[in-house]
Amino acid sequence: METKILILEDYKKSGVISAADAEKIKIAADIIRNGGLAALPTETVYGLGGNALMKEASKKIYAAKGRPSDNPLIVHISDISELESIVKEIPEKAALLAEYFWPGPMTMIFKKADIVPYETTGGLDTVAVRFPSHPVAMMIIREAGVPVAAPSANISGRPSTTSGEHCIEDISGRVDAIVDGGSSDIGLESTIIDITGDTPQLLRPGAVTKEMLENVLGVSVTEDIALKGPLAEGERPKAPGMKYRHYAPKAPMILVTAHSKEDVCGISKKILELIKTKEAENKKTALLCSEECLNEIKNDLDRLAESIDIKITGSRDDVKGIAHGLFEYLREFDSDGIDYIVAEGYSEEELGQAVMNRLKKAAAWQLIYV
After folding, report:
1. Where are the beta strands (DSSP E) in the chain?
2. What is the tens place of the pLDDT at every residue in 187-196?
3. What is the pLDDT of residue 280?
4. Cys-Cys link to 266, which of 46, 285, 289, 370 (CB 3.0-4.6 A)?
């Protein structure tokens, strides 16, 4: 398949959608409306867009990503008024959360309307819905005139794409078009919350944190069991990213973390020990860590082989910065031909919960607690 690469030159330079950019956006919207696939930028990560109301389009999404068909897709809208047509009811909790966090990086689970095919929802009677804040995403959805199913625009299991270049690398030749709108602002997928039951339940952490949700709702938000570890064989995922290996680089990865902030000093020591072991095995080793961690072991690292590939996430205190660059660093390790990755874990408070959720999945839950 020949993929049209639609680069929004003016938007990437100025953040303003020019007339020339708008024409390219209309091309992508027409493709989606008519059952084709177009990757599009959002504020979280890039999405692989298809007409959410056409079961054949959803099947194409699963095929393009190599994604299991019981893994639900998120349906994107461009205005709150579009919600009524795709869900059976809008609970009071949902209306309250929408008022505070839409448009933005939050997905809510509703009971689906009959118009939404099971091919889009992974066979479930519920549908995941998001109203993105990215101006290009909103314009594409609005121009398409249909809700847009848009999981992350990457090969299933790989780190999500946060730039047009990443999309081209992963899915060019698999989709009809890729809209390049520059880098994603957040760099992590949306928060997913299930509001279909009596108690709101967090299915995937993101930029809208558990604490933020609880402050708005005035009640406790429970956490799905999938946040503690992978689902068991036979269990059906309620939302994207819950069951299968996700966000993963090609090389095996181990995550070194601590149960509390008081134990964080032990992380650097354990990381150094693991790197020495892998170097002794002649493994091309990579390190993903904070500035503080590197400073604690730099003298020892300098005595090891120069082939160690080090990516610095920034300061431990800059969680937004860590989140923004995480998937880019994991993809760079793939390009560098790394054999083994050792990564530092971080505090799971607020946005740190989302960062650690992605790191745990990238490491296939291979963790060492110090």
Report:
1. 4-7, 38-40, 47-51, 74-76, 106-111, 126-130, 148-149, 177-180, 191-194, 201-204, 222-223, 253-257, 285-289, 309-312, 340-344, 367-369
2. 999 999 999 9
3. 85
4. 370
